[in-house]
Amino acid sequence: MKRDTIIYIPYWMRRSKTNEYTINMIRLLQERYVVNGDLAEPFEISKMLQIKAVFLNWIEQDLNTKMKIQLLLHQLLGVQIIWVFHNKYPHDTEQDEYILRNIQWIANHSNVIILHSKSSIKYIPNQKRNRRKAVYIPHLLYESHNDGTDLDNVRIKYKIMQDEFVFLIFGRIRPYKNIEEGIETFCKLKLPHAKLIIAGKPSDNQYADKLKMLCRDNPDIILDLQFISNIMLDNLIDISDVVIMPYKDGSSMNSGVMIQAFSRGKTVIVPDICMAQDMMEQRFFYMYENSLGQVMMKAYKNGKKTNKAMGERAKEYVYRNNNWEKVKKKMYGLFGD
Question: Same domain, yes or no, for 287 and 328?
Fold first, then answer.
């Protein structure tokens, strides 16, 4: 029986607001395989025999006894269990024994552990046993959604002048991203002719209210706290000079925001997460350990022209190293295809 099916968890549904990483990875796998999101039930032996691999993403909180049994049965019948090791620990959660045990279980029982940064190998649980399972596959770059957009209209919408220096924080607005520090630092710097845009849907109304309170006295901070379409998100990246990622909770190893900014030719400010460590010698972004204000000031003083040149080098890098064909080749290589 031919194994031509991939189970990808979490799966995406049409019209859903699934993150673009998931959509892109499923599209890539669909070029050769049937892809769905449902594990076979224990009695569906013939279905399991058609499955080539199960991909697990961000599963640490949801893994329960039933799923563990299902995964072990799949594995017993020749299915590869592939865990994408995105974060040291799930964002916005307190460390507890249940999740820690699940992380250990996934690492121990996976056939392959995918890393999106080579430096993150040091965080794989149970190193002696599981390090050999690690495979580095670059994070796929993001495709353009807004070719041909008149950016002057976007600047008018957000009341931004052509010569103003624009910092941007975008994506899902969640506490682990430490957006408060980005706001507080921008306010303290009091940079002339500078704006800070924060765009994305907050995790809840309480967090949104907290951010609004922090910004209430600064007209140079623009809050767009709602779901941002892919087209408008590309527009916002395009009118910005530097994208800020002020993450601080210690769980992050990789950043889709970083790759998304690079894909559109923008430089970033990012803490010393693993993905940044991998690229630090390229010198096309700002990495920091402690002082966000210091690097924001450096980026501002460098000016639009220097930051644009850094962003163009970043774009060249990801189009060379994170492109569709390169990632697809490495992904299919997991199966000997």
Answer: no
Using CA atoms, how far residue 227 sits from 210, 231, 255, 257, in Å, is: 18, 12, 19, 15
Beta bridge partner(s), residue 246: none
What DSSP string describes 151-200? HHHHHHHHT--TTSEEEEEESSB-GGG-HHHHHHHHHHH--TTEEEEEES
Residue that the structure tokens 């910004």 belong to: 215
pLDDT tens-digit series, residues 62-101: 999 999 999 999 999 999 999 999 999 888 777 789 999 9
Q: By three-state DSSP, how is residue 142 classified?
A: coil
Strands 242-244 vs 267-271: parallel, antiparallel or unpaired: parallel
CA distance 284 to 310: 5
Half-sphere exposure of 128 (CA within 13 A, CB side): 0
pLDDT per position as a tens digit, 108-135: 999 999 999 999 999 999 999 999 999 9
Question: What secondary structure does DSSP assign to 63-82, as a single string?
Answer: --HHHHHHHHHHHHTTPEEE
The CATH number of residue 309's host domain is 3.40.50.2000
By residue range, what is the domain housing residue 119?
5-140+323-333
Query: Contact 11/27 with Cβ under 8 angstroms?
Result: no
Q: Which two tokens stand for residue 114?
A: 């995918």
- Specify the pTM: 0.94
94: left (phi over 0), alpha (psi -120 to 50) or beta: beta
Strands (E), the chain: 5-9, 34-36, 51-57, 80-84, 112-115, 134-136, 165-170, 194-199, 221-224, 242-244, 267-271, 286-288
User: What total number of domains does the chain contain?
Assistant: 2
Whether residues 135 and 252 share a domain: the answer is: no
Side chain identity at 230, as an amino acid letter? N
Bridge partners for 84 per DSSP: 57, 114
Do 36 and 94 belong together in one domain? yes
